[in-house]
Task: inverse folding
């Protein structure tokens, strides 16, 4: 019988660099490339690998399975959120591994719906600060001013929240913002998509859509998006598209190798499950 999975830590292979597929669309991908949601795809893929392991793998097969699982464990944020165009590195996250506290739960035993709005709000402020500190420090003062009522400020006109599952304490969350579409020059508003991700469950707990207006507090009226903001948004937009392409290439790599394991273990002609080392 083939031996059970050994405790070997593999060196990961380099992921293939597939050709980039440029898109002329001005709307960020709203759906993952497969029929499954990104969170469900991650859970399903882990289950598929687990089935291969439980069936019985040889030492080389077990090392390959461990390599795939290491990619899933290390890059799951990219595979869940980056797949949808969100930028998931630490400098772009609105909140990263933010602690969910017991007091945020309600009498129903799950995090209160209002808490998600606060998560999105706090993350949006940090999203702006990330531009000031990490992304566009040359305009740091102008970015930070948008968080105040002294000049041109960003105002939340509306927010819609979609709850995916009842998150509970203890947990941590990461929250990401992205442009839903690239604003037109001369427009006075833009739309942000938000993902609130459970670190414990490695899945989306809630998503939001935020309608943001640029407001001139001195004139007391809406104002156009400033050129420095448009320049930064155009760069971010291209990065969002590349995030989706990069995640899709990684998902394709994972899918091919999981399918290889399946064909070499339980899904092959004459396959017999390893029932243990009985004499």
Result:
């Amino acid at each position: 019988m083939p031996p059970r999975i050994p405790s070997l830590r593999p060196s990961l292979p380099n992921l293939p660099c597939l050709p980039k597929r440029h898109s002329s669309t001005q709307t960020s991908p709203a759906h993952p490339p497969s029929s499954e949601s990104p969170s469900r795809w991650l859970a399903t893929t882990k289950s598929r690998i687990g089935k291969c392991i439980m069936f019985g793998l040889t030492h080389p097969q077990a090392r390959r399975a461990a390599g795939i699982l290491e990619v899933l464990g290390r890059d799951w944020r990219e595979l869940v959120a980056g797949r949808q165009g969100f930028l998931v590195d630490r400098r772009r996250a609105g909140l990263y591994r933010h602690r969910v506290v017991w007091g945020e739960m309600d009498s129903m035993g799950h995090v209160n719906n209002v808490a998600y709005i606060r998560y999105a709000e706090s993350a949006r402020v940090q999203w702006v600060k990330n531009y000031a500190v990490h992304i566009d420090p040359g305009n740091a003062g102008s970015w930070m001013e948008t968080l105040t009522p002294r000049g041109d400020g960003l105002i939340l006109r509306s927010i819609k929240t979609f709850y995916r599952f009842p998150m509970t304490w203890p947990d941590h969350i990461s929250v990401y913002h992205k442009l839903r579409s690239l604003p037109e020059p001369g427009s006075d508003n833009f739309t942000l998509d938000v993902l609130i991700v459970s670190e414990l469950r490695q899945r989306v707990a809630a998503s939001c859509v935020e309608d943001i207006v640029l407001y001139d507090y001195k004139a007391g009226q809406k104002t156009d998006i400033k050129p420095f903001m448009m320049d930064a948004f155009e760069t971010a937009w291209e990065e969002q598209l590349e995030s989706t392409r990069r995640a899709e290439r990684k998902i394709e790599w994972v899918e091919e190798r999981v399918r290889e394991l399946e064909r070499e273990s339980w899904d092959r002609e004459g396959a017999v499950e390893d029932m243990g080392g009985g004499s």
Summary: The two ends are 11 Å apart (CA to CA).
